Amino acid sequence: MNTVPGSLVHLSRGFRRPQGVGAIIWGLTAAVALGACTVGPDYKRPSYPVPSSFRGGESTPTAEPSVGDLAWSSFFQDPTLQDLIRIALRESYDIRVAATRILDARAQVTISRSFQFPEVNHRAEAIYNRIEGERNVIQPKEDFAPRAGLDLSFELDFWGRFRRATEASRADLLASEEFRRFVISTLVTDVATAYLQLRSFDGELEVATRTLAARQDSLGLVRRREQGGVAGMIDVRQAQILVAQAAETVVDTQRLIEQTENTIAVLLGRNPDAIPRGRALGQQITLPAVPAGVPSALLERRSDVRQAEARLAAATARIGVAKSDFFPRVFLSGIAAGGSLMVDGRWVGPQALFSVGPSVSLPLFNMGRTKAGVDSAEARTEEALAQYRQTIVQAFREVADALVEHRKRREFRVQQEALVVAAADAARLADIRYKGGVSSYLEVLDSERQFFDAELGLVRSNRDELVAVVRLYRALGGGWQDDREASTQGQREARREP
User: Which residues pair with 146 in a beta bridge?
Assistant: First the structure.
């Protein structure tokens, strides 16, 4: 004889449609399911007053694609620099950290989405009971009930709790992907900036070394003049001052070169080491123009703006998760199992068990915890909205700063070139006047110092102009694109209305 507990439905005759109260329960469940909805606000991109043009840029922007749409491999044209950037993107620990955040966010999406589906677990048990002493007449002395089956648990997502949670997790995933792009952009421009600094120091070392050799020759000439009675010892000392100034510049520049190499090596994820050289400083970036593009496109191109927007979308979705706590939670649970029963040494069975039914949990009183949860979610959304708008303001400010820096650095470099020409001619004339006995060596000392400083200043002004271009490129949202992504972005930009 097969016996089962009264709460279980015997399966030997198959599953039958619930009757009476069961039918009412199933009808209510079906009705609620048909009326299911998703509570909470749907995310919409907030409006923002985008300026018609960048300050410091063209007053009427054209539809020409922005320099920020270029892939970094097209923007930086030195093959050696390109190789260094590829190594950094492959080996940098910052990129690895960003990649692990993406893996974590993807896993969180799977976790959040899993709650939308039933959970089935396997369970097996073999409980043995033995009673010593007095017992009831119908109570067996010992029994043994091995059983194995499946447990079902499922919370019906009537109010969109789990759908909103999945939506938030997907937005977090998007934010982590944008964070990785931001890290890539920062790393690419940091490597390029450090490399331009290195090539600038190489140029300064070349100027200082050449000047040191020329001043050592001049010192020898002055000593011979002093020995011949044509010049005094003061001229020798002044010539020695010029030599010492050039020599200390050589030593200090060599220090800066080695420290900059160490900086680049760390960006590459390596121990400090020497860095290979490529093109000269003036051949690093040879773009005919650096157009800024349409201001509205900046919101799509800058990864930090898109990351802030993704965080805002995630916070908005979590309002729905919090609001769902106001509504009933409906659970569906059940069990399907099979086993046998041994009573006082006699086996009864086999048995097949099946139990299923809904349950409802309705919040009545929790000291305002649910309302506080909604208030907290709304406050975090307001915070994310303020951060999103602040990121946009900062983005436009960085572009404006980069535009004026690039323009003024270029103007400064032009003036520095004129200064070098004038200082070189002044040094030449001072040397002629000194050799002709018209002026003292003090005039040569002063003109040589001015010419040396002007040459070093020209190298630095060339570097500063290039660094300004790199900063503009980064401010416009460039640096994270590879060739394929840049092509897609460029096509999207070309279709955008000015």
Answer: 126
Query: What b/e sequence results for 100-115 when a residue is b if at least 16 CB atoms lie within 10 Å of its CB, and e otherwise?
Result: ebbeebbebbeebbee
Look at residue 359 and give its three-state secondary structure.
Answer: strand
Identify residue 101 by its one-letter amino acid code.
Answer: R
Token reading at 159: 């109010």
Assigned token pair, 179: 């964070």
Contact 157, 72 (CB under 8 A): no
Is residue 208 within 8 A of residue 249, CB to CB? The reply is yes
Tokens of 144: 């043994």
Which spans in 115-160 are helix H? none
Which alpha helices (H) appear in 56-160, and where do they start and end?
A: 72-75, 79-91, 93-114
**CA pair distance 491, 157, nearest whole angstrom:** 41
Q: Can you tell me whether residue 70 is helix, strand or coil?
A: coil
Q: Are the C-beta atoms of residues 226 and 232 closer than 8 Å to each other?
A: yes
| 337 or 373, greater pLDDT | 373
Rounded Cα distance between 101 and 186, Å, is 17
| Both structure tokens of 22 | 């069961």
Domain annotation for the chain: domains and CATH numbers: 1-35+118-156+329-362 (no CATH), 40-116+159-327+371-495 (1.20.1600.10)
pLDDT, position 31: 45
Q: Which two tokens stand for residue 55?
A: 């300050």
Sole residue written with tokens 């969109």? 160
Peptide bond into 350 cis (omega under 30): yes
Place of tokens 């309705």: 362
DSSP 8-state class, residue 358: E
Give me the count of residues in the chain: 498
Burial of residue 266 (number of CB atoms within 10 Å: 0-12, 13-18, 19+) = middle
Tell me the pLDDT band of 235, cut-offs 50, 70 and 90: confident
Locate 27 and state its tokens: 């009808």
Q: Structure pTM?
A: 0.80
Structure tokens at 78: 């030195």
Following DSSP, what letter does each residue of 316-334 receive, concatenated? Answer: HHHHHHHHGGGS-EEEEEE
Which residues, in sequence order, are CB contacts of 96 under 8 Å at separation 6+? Answer: none
* pLDDT digits 0-9 by tens, 343-386: 766 777 777 777 888 888 888 888 888 899 999 999 999 999 99
